[in-house]
Write a structure and sequence with these properties.
Elements lengths: L7 H5 L4 H7 L4 H4 L12 E5 L5 H9 L4 E6 L2 H14 L4 E5 L12 E7 L8 H10 L1 E12 L5 E3 L5 H14 L10 H7 L7 E10 L2 H17 L1 H8 L5 H15 L5 E12 L7
Parallel strand pairs: 1-2, 1-4, 2-3, 4-5
Antiparallel strand pairs: 5-8, 6-8, 7-8
Keywords: Methyltransferase, Transferase
Organism: Guyanagaster necrorhizus
GO molecular function: methyltransferase activity
């Protein structure tokens, strides 16, 4: 895959094990609770940007008479996904390489098309939603959940964490991504062809407040800062020096060792009812 063909997410943090540690913690229950009540046992579901397939597997368990397809830009990460579902004994699920900007499926194929933390990393968020809508059946659902990085908040406010956020956001936007995606979902959806009455919005939060949660979150980000593609992109792109990135990793660990540490993430959630046959 050429550098130009790689998704913006790759340019921001890549697929290092420190990144997958976070992605593998995701489940359908924790990340798609807003969608689960609308899933029936015989549905055909597409999980876009499925990564290691943990959410995808949760969908498959809920459609015993249906089927789930997971796609991701990385063939390497899909090997993790296949191993995950094989371990669980799920047989109604397949994985293939593909991009949300050019979904390799005919129109009107799926009952539900889902994306978790994917749209923000694309270089054309409206095109991504148009493609998701295209492959969804009339009456089906396009479901998207995205974080909002500017709305992340934490305590204590140690020097270095705000620097981390600014560097991350600068790298993301330079690659065409939009890290403040949650607040823009409905705006992008309308540009993609959905009418306002078809769009249902909600919000949720992720909170890291117990000693176990804080330890996991801080150590993951300390490792991710120094070991993922973030380090190479930040230093070679002139966003920060090696000393600055090393300091940020140290601050993450310092923060994680504080008994009062608290970190919250705002999540935007959107369900779009697909109406075709001239309705849009």
């Amino acid at each position: 895959m050429s550098n130009e063909a790689k998704p913006a997410a790759y340019k921001t943090h890549g697929y290092h094990s420190s990144v997958l540690r976070s992605h593998k913690s995701r489940t359908a229950e924790s990340c798609a609770a807003y969608l689960l009540p609308f899933i029936g046992p015989d549905m055909n579901i597409l999980d876009v940007g499925c990564g290691p397939g943990t959410i995808t597997a949760g969908f498959a368990a809920r459609v015993p008479q249906g089927h789930v397809t997971g796609i991701d830009m990385s063939a390497e990460v899909l090997e993790h996904a296949r191993a995950n579902v094989e371990q669980q004994g799920l047989t109604n699920i397949t994985f293939q390489v593909g991009s949300v900007l050019e979904l390799p499926f005919p129109d009107n194929t799926f009952d539900v098309v889902h994306a978790h933390q994917v749209i923000q990393h694309t270089t054309d968020q409206v095109k991504a939603l148009q493609e998701m809508r295209r492959v969804t059946k009339d009456g089906g659902i396009v479901a998207v959940r995205e974080a909002d990085m500017s709305a992340m908040t934490w305590f204590p406010d140690l020097e270095g964490l705000e620097k981390w956020r600014k560097i991350y956001m600068a790298i993301a936007r330079a690659s065409g991504a939009e890290p403040d995606a949650a607040r823009r979902l409905h705006f992008w959806a309308k540009k993609a062809g959905f009418k306002r009455h078809q769009i249902s919005l909600s919000a949720a939060t992720n909170l890291y407040a117990t000693a176990e949660e804080v330890g996991w979150w801080s150590n993951m980000w300390a490792d991710r800062t120094m070991q993922s593609l973030f380090l190479k992109t930040a230093t070679e792109g002139g966003y920060a020096s090696l000393d600055e990135i090393t300091h940020i990793a140290d601050v993450w660990r310092q923060w994680g060792g504080n008994e009062d540490a608290w970190f919250a993430i705002l999540q935007g959630q959107m369900l779009c009812q697909v109406e075709k046959d001239g309705c849009n």
